[in-house]
Task: structure prediction
Amino acid sequence: MLNNSIRRCRDNPVISINDVSPTTKQMQVIGIFNCGGAKLNGKTYLLCRIAEILKSPREGVLTVPIFDLHGQPSSMTFDLSDPKFDFSDNRVVVERKTGKIVSLTSFSTFRLAVSDDGVHFIIGETPCMPLNPILEEWGMEDPRVTPLEDQFYITYSSVSRHGVGVSLSSSNDFKSFKQIGMILPPANKDAVLFPEKINGKYYLLHRPSLGGGGIGNSNVWIADSSDLLHWGNHKPLFDCETGNEWESQKIGAGAPPIRIPQGWLVLYHGVDIQQRYSMGAIILDHDDPSIILSRSAHPILEPEMEYETSGFFSNTVFPCTAFLNGSDVVIYYGAADKSICRVDIPLKTF
Ligand code: MAN
Result:
């Protein structure tokens, strides 16, 4: 059901494939979507994930850019009719015999988008963040940006044959970036940093991907650190076993927490059994963020518009950025792993 209090931007998608140039002439952009964002000098900066493939010489062939073991640009080619592989999940190539993911179907890097009004963006023509060819052999994904002390910290997924882990970089101007390194090894993703120290410690939400070994679910955990590099005191914080169908498969933190009068507001994504991604919210205690004060029973944003229900991975809304703007929360989200959209939601909705 469309909720009247939420206002999707009339210009949605605010950023789409047509706005982006491929990294090289041989590449083709297939999506610009999940983005971390920050405000700086009155402008909105979005670090956007772009997914690319290599143009194929013929129909029925998929060529994915990767880095080889020596850190040199390379590629993997698959015949889409090859019975050895299962291509039914658009995002990955699965070897039928072992059930293992042997490749992604695209390679992701980050582009910077800048706007004066939060709706019209100018997008950089080349990837803006350096890449670690070993840890990011298969790309870098889903950035979240947290303003903290005098820096912007970027948490993101580093993807390689070794798995998906969480890396950290920093910048103070979005022109140069410092790679800090992997802070949580595989399998982990969807990490968001709190924008303030709490009782002298840094806090992080993260999502270990469990379930593969048959024990546990993909739930959201909390950890703390005194230096941003070494994380400990890991505790499960909230889970997907709520009885709510829309978040029954897995959940992951979305945008970095924002301080509202009631506590820390955290937007997250919940996934149902049909792999439909919706957005929920949770409020954590200001002084002890391991205390949950309230949680949405129903999704606050669901895939309903055509640009959300149909795309590279259809039926997906994936928030990674939220700003307070007067009495509204402005959210940027990836729509169907294809484009970037904006929605404004009154704070009172939460
Ligand atoms: C995973 C991640 C996201 C992606 C969703 C939907 O959670 O890879 O980047 O947006 O799936 O495909």
Residues 306-309 form the longest helix (4 residues). The pocket of alpha-D-mannopyranose is lined by residues 34, 91, 141-142, 277, 313, 316, 318, 334, 337 (CB under 6 Å). Residues 7 and 344 are 5 Å apart (CA to CA). The mean pLDDT is 95.
